[in-house]
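Researcher: Here's my situation. A collaborator sent me these components and asked whether they could plausibly form a single complex. I don't have experimental data yet, so a predicted model of the whole assembly would be a useful starting point for our discussion.
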Amino acid sequence: MEYLALIYADEAVWERMPDAERESAYEQYAEFSRAARDAGVLVGGNELGSTSSATTVRVRDDERLVSDGPYAEVKEALGGYFILDCPTVDAALDWAARIPAAEHGAVEIRPVHVDEEA
Amino acid sequence: MQYALLVYSDQSSWEGIDEEEAARRRAESMPRWIALFEELGKVDPGALGRELEAATEAKVVRVVDGERVVTDGPFAETKEQLGGLFVTTLPDLDEAIRLAALVPAAQYGSLEIRPIVER
């Protein structure tokens, strides 16, 4: 069963972070990725560009409305994700708790929908 | 350039409806989803797409002073919730905007495009 782990953290903290500290944070993420890959749990994952680089698209009455910025302005923004293949939600929560952002931000776990026809 | 297309919509209209109604709604939007997947297959056959179970199924994990704290429900209590995502390699943002507008949920929800950080 796949679970999407959504990583929420304060972007301002990330942007103000000294380079050396950021490198060490990246190393922690690399360690998490290695552990999850070695355990056969890691399906994928990515870091997202900051919300200032976001573009939001809506279509209303066949008209395309494009705006700069994220869908919602929040203090702790979605900054990245992992897709984890785990037997149970508890196992997914165990892995999610090991994602570095769990210590200073939050990690949301969402089950991925399985299409029965596929 | 890689982009994440985040699909946000108000999921409350799906709460409490029966399987039949859910199936009817899915069937109704199916041609538009098929059109999107055809187009996505042309521009990036390797695109990743995932649909999520409802946000009511979400759990949030935090580690506070070394202790794991788990809460039910999504992290952000917004009207529109993340319902799925696509990750795709595209030539530029204009192409990402074009594809985002083809996602059926763009007509009743919001598509947020975020560049993927390449390191």
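Model: Some features of this prediction you could bring to your collaborator: Chain A has one domain: 2-111. The helical segments of chain A are 11-16, 19-38, 89-97.
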